[in-house]
Design brief:
heterotrimer; A mainly alpha; B alpha/beta; C mainly alpha; A: mainly alpha; ABC transporter involved in vitamin B12 uptake, BtuC; 2 domains; two-stranded antiparallel sheet; 68% helix; 1% strand; globular; B: 2 domains; three-stranded parallel β-sheet; 14 strands; 41% helix
């Protein structure tokens, strides 16, 4: 139990930094200081990306499933939240209350979609969730694109009330903090440990009495909810919601943020989200035309190189020798005290959960290629 | 720890940027020329349009500058690429506006224009778009169109069909999830005579290349209305050339423009007639249109010659003319005038019945207070039936 | 009647292409146990190779080059991107596959630009059949797909490599113990899958003579849907799923009211199948063992 007392301010550094940032910028805005539009747009986009990346990180990094329809859930949130806000605008005006109602509706409907999609897909093992969420994203896009002008605007897109841009970013960052609080506490709770147990070995987790489908669905739904919240935020930061934005490519962009930040690292996702959004915006007027494809090329390389580097069994010794952590500590020449084992930092993947028979056998028979098997009890 | 440190660092940088970016200023106060901004697809599927607009507007600016500018003050054009993607507009708009843009040509295409019109209304920036034809584009009072609005195009097409195909069956092929295509089609349908039966078929995937099902549906139609862009239209025609009757007519709107200049698509292999509704005749043999065509082809080649460019050329002259008129009327337009002040002056001129007497895309062009343009439309046969 | 017949023929020819792609998907999935997201993009690469070699105006040479190029590309992708991850979590492999798919698309766009390229491989013309105008290329597509399916089934049933493939797909460890070169078999699987993708690229060009860097993206996903509907890992299942999906797509496009929702309908079928019968129509149920 002693470890739990050691939870220090380090664990809250992300709240602290984002909180201070919000308070400082917010008080400038409230005191009547005016920011450049480009600055405000950037802040809004960064906040949206952060919420998306943190929520996707829950599914990809902690649950170990791949969702390619994160933008689809965002789309649901954006349209539903935006529609509610547009309907309420005559009575409530463009007020924080209207915003709050839109958030609840958008997030709620996205959560419902998460349950509906997660139910069939999460019962199955393997890559089905990826393909089902991908399909979901396309379905949502095509449904909203073909609605009539009166309901969701159809091809023209839905006109939504845009919240005053001088203040919206404050709400945006408060939402980032709420997202962090919910997801981070979920991960650090009993439920979160169940989720990571499922990621590391589903069969073992099931054998330990964990209700696998329930926890998978829970994590997936939380993630979908916050994607919906990000969508509502998007609808409040734009005049129109056009479903073309929420395609496969956008889902991949969010995935790139999670992968770049390091799967299973919330803070990494936050930084990567801020970095990628910042670069995207700053390079948007430079990387145009045939150069725009360089962005996709970069995304592709990030996905391939980082994932292979982090996961390839044959690179394990190389990784242990030259990872950022050891390089950094060499740089700073900080002494490592082996006694200071921190909680919450356990490397779950190095905990031996089981040894497979064929793995033991293969060592004797083909010593040159002992990695040629699935470690994690795949379909046999 | 390494992450928390990096996090702190990144957020501090953002914070510093935020602090540095305070203030409500006239971004044009250091201008030495009048700056005109435009955002359009310079590349990608609709790249031909943005390129034509940027080239033609630059040509007009060069001409005006060569003739001494406006009372000695030169003009400058800044064109940014949005690849027909509405999500790029907030960035493009703010970098244009904060880069000193005083007046704008808006966007080249409709979908991004829907975002642009509101952003520009917030800052009160005047725009006259050459080709964003959506009905809602000039909804705010700072926005004007040089092209026909979609609804208008659909209406004119319906009038043509009502006259020639009473009691007959015609075909229609459009992209159901695109503002431009659906906007025109809806108005077309609404204004169509009730005696005419329409066989309609649609597509949605922007990358679709195979239209065999749709062609099969439309194969007996002698007249096919196609309010779509040139790339899918050319694919449709290639695949339909043996299926659809040889004397059929493909009737398109301004999206057909440039169909005779697609690489690898030889329009002469299509036996059917291809006709479009336009405000510009790219085979004109006299007048300002002829002059424009000669100059453009000479400078940029014939590949990107289309009505979008012609319209943009007129837009620059219209803005120039309106500013000149305002100065003649005694208004003061210094080179560092803020976008908002210039917008008020230009809106007063356009609402006050400003007329562009001679232009490439028409004569005596005026604007309604709604922002829609008043001028004549041409039914232009790109290729006759073989 | 005419309407039904023409829809049937259109559906069959589109379904034939889907089946061709789904065959490649299902083989790779069945044997390497991974969802090769880049499979659809190999179709696109095949199309571009044909486009390049059609400059020599020799369709047969162009097709041959496309198959050879795609096979080599498939093997390279497997060796460079997927082999290092054998033994890692399925999630890592899946993300890498998406990365490869993105990489192929963006490289194609860098090399060939974003505009569509037009290329006519061979104009088979059309014949009139019971009053319906039928594209001969559609019949060729269907015929080739059926032949390929039969050859593949025979290959797997009757050759040593084919039986080794079945063994690897059943149990990699046991197969290796039996002296089967597991890595070699997986490479062969990728080579066959890529060759099929190259043929699918050819069929697309026969159907619509235009190519862009996103040519394979949507068909790839739909073909995977087809493979799941038919039962992943099953070769006749891929054929059945492909034809079924092609028919659904064509019928849906025929009905004006639902035409805009065609993609949504196809993907909804996938979700429903997974809910009702996760193994697809012809798939085998596998039990998980520890």
């Amino acid at each position: 139990m002693n470890n739990f007392r050691k939870i220090s301010w380090h664990h809250y550094i992300n709240y602290i930094v984002i909180g201070i940032l919000t308070i400082v910028l917010g008080s400038i805005a409230l005191a009547g200081g005016r920011f450049n539009s480009s600055m405000l747009f950037l802040l809004e986009k960064v906040a949206i990306s952060m919420i998306l990346a943190v929520s996707l990180s829950l599914v990809v990094g902690f649950l170990g499933e791949l969702s390619l329809g994160h933008a689809g859930f965002m789309c649901v949130g954006a349209y539903l939240g935006g529609k509610v806000a547009a309907l309420l605008e005559p009575t409530l005006g463009n007020s924080p209350l209207n915003f709050l109602i839109a958030l609840l509706v958008g997030g709620g409907v996205a959560a419902l979609c998460g349950v509906i999609i997660g139910m069939p897909a999460l019962r199955l093992r393997g890559d089905y969730l990826a393909i089902v969420t991908l399909a979901f994203g396309e379905i949502v896009k095509s449904i909203f694109q073909n609605t009539s002008d009166e309901t969701f605007g159809g091809a023209l897109g839905l006109e939504t009330p845009r919240y005053d841009k001088q203040y919206l970013f404050i709400f945006a960052f408060i939402l980032v903090l709420i997202t962090l609080a919910v997801i981070q506490n979920f991960i650090r709770s009993k439920h979160g440990r169940a989720v990571t147990a499922i990621r590391d070995n589903e069969i073992a987790a099931r054998a330990s009495g964990i209700n696998v489908t329930k926890y998978k669905l829970l994590a997936f739904t939380i993630s979908a909810t916050f994607a919906g919240v990000a969508g509502v935020l998007y609808s409040f930061s734009n005049y129109t919601v056009q479903s073309a934005k929420f395609g496969y490519n956008y889902s991949i962009e969010i995935l790139v943020m999670v992968v770049l930040g390091g799967m299973g690292s919330i803070n990494g996702s936050i930084i990567a989200a801020a970095l990628i959004t910042f670069l995207n915006t700053k390079l948007a007027t430079v990387l145009t035309g045939d150069l725009a494809v360089l962005q996709n090329l970069l995304y592709a390389l990030i996905l391939i190189v980082i994932v292979i580097y982090n996961n390839a069994p044959s690179l394990k010794s190389f990784r242990d020798k030259y990872n950022i952590g050891t390089l950094l500590s060499k740089l700073v020449r900080k002494k490592h005290d082996p006694a200071s084992i921190k909680d919450d930092k356990a490397k779950w993947d190095v905990v031996p959960t089981k040894i497979e028979m064929n793995e033991v056998l293969s060592i004797d028979i083909t010593p040159q290629d002992k990695q040629g098997y699935e470690k994690k009890g795949g379909d046999k | 720890m390494k992450f928390t440190k990096a996090l702190a660092l990144v957020l501090c940088v953002v914070l510093c940027l935020g602090m540095a970016a305070c203030g409500n200023v006239n971004y044009a106060e250091n201008n030495t020329e009048y700056v005109i901004g435009v955002s359009g697809p310079l590349t990608g599927g609709a790249g031909m349009y943005g390129t034509a607009v940027a080239n033609s507007a630059q040509m007009a600016v060069d001409e005006i500058n060569a003739a001494g500018g406006l009372n000695g003050v030169m003009f400058k054009l800044v064109a940014l690429d949005d690849m027909n993607d509405a999500t790029k507009i907030s960035t493009n708009y703010s970098s244009l506006y904060e880069g000193g843009m005083q007046v704008s040509l808006g966007t080249v295409t409709t979908q991004p224009g829907l975002e642009f019109k509101n952003l520009s209304a917030d800052d009160n920036v005047f725009f006259l778009t050459p080709s964003a034809s959506g009905d809602d584009i000039p909804a705010n009072k700072n926005g004007y169109q040089m092209c026909f609005a979609d609804g208008n195009q659909g209406k004119v097409a319906a009038e043509f069909v009502n006259e020639n195909f009473k009691g007959k069956t015609i075909g229609a092929f459009y992209k159901s999830d695109e503002a431009y295509s659906k906007g025109i089609y809806d108005q077309f349908k609404a204004n169509l005579d009730s005696s005419i039966t329409v066989v309609e078929t649609t597509f949605t995937d922007a990358n679709a290349t195979d239209f065999s099902t749709q062609i099969d549906t439309l194969k007996d139609c002698g007249f096919i209305f196609m309010p779509i862009y040139y790339t899918p239209a050319s694919l449709f025609m290639t695949q339909a050339k043996d299926v659809v009757a040889k004397d059929a007519v493909y009737y398109g709107c301004d999206g057909f423009d440039g169909i005779d200049n697609i690489e690898g698509f030889d329009i002469t292999t299509i036996p059917q007639e291809i006709t479009m509704l336009s405000h510009f005749n790219s085979k004109a043999t006299d007048g300002l249109a002829k002059e424009f065509i000669d100059k453009y082809v000479d400078k940029y080649g014939a590949e990107t010659l289309n009505q979008f460019g012609a319209s943009a050329y007129d837009c620059v002259y219209a803005i120039y003319g309106a500013m000149k008129k305002a100065i003649d009327d005694g208004k003061d337009i210094p080179v560092t005038i803020s976008a908002s002040d210039l917008c008020d002056i230009l809106m007063a001129e356009f609402e006050g019945g400003y007329t562009l007497e001679t232009a490439v895309t028409g004569e005596n062009i005026t604007w309604e207070s709604t922002g829609y343009v008043n001028k004549g439309a041409i039914k232009y046969v790109i290729k006759e039936a073989n | 009647m005419e309407l039904i017949l023409s829809t049937l023929i259109n559906g069959l020819s589109l379904g034939g292409i889907y089946a061709m792609i789904a065959l490649g998907y299902t083989m790779v999935y069945g044997i390497a146990k991974m969802l090769n997201f880049a499979h659809g993009d190999i179709i696109m690469v095949g199309g571009y190779v044909i486009y390049v070699f059609m400059a020599l105006n020799n369709p047969l040479l162009a097709i041959l080059m496309a198959v050879v190029f795609c096979v080599i590309l498939g093997i390279i992708i497997e060796k460079v991107a997927y082999k290092p991850l054998r033994g890692a979590s399925p999630l890592a492999v899946l993300i890498t596959a998406i990365g490869v798919s993105y990489l192929l698309q963006s490289l194609a766009q860098i090399i060939f630009g974003s505009a569509n390229k037009m290329v006519t491989v061979y104009d088979f013309g059309s014949v009139s059949f019971l009053g319906v105008n039928v594209q001969v290329s559609a019949l060729v597509t269907l015929a080739v797909t059926v032949v390929v399916m039969i050859v593949l089934t025979l290959f797997i049933k009757c050759t040593r490599i084919g039986r080794a493939m079945v063994a690897v797909s059943e149990d990699k460890g046991a197969a290796q113990l039996m002296g089967i070169n597991v890595n070699g078999i997986i490479t062969v699987t990728f080579a066959i899958g890529s060759a099929l993708a190259a043929l699918a690229g050819l069929f697309y060009l026969l159907k619509a003579p235009s190519i862009s860097s996103t040519l394979g993206a949507m068909p790839g996903i739909k073909a995977f849907t087809a493979a799941v509907i038919g039962g992943i890992g099953s070769i006749p299942g891929a054929m059945l799923g492909g034809i079924l999906l092609g028919m659904v797509e064509c019928i849906s496009y025929k009905i004006t009211a639902i035409a805009p929702y065609t993609d949504a309908i196809e993907f909804s079928i996938l979700i429903i199948i997974l809910l009702v019968r996760p193994t697809g129509f012809l798939g085998k149920k596998r039990r998980e063992k520890v």
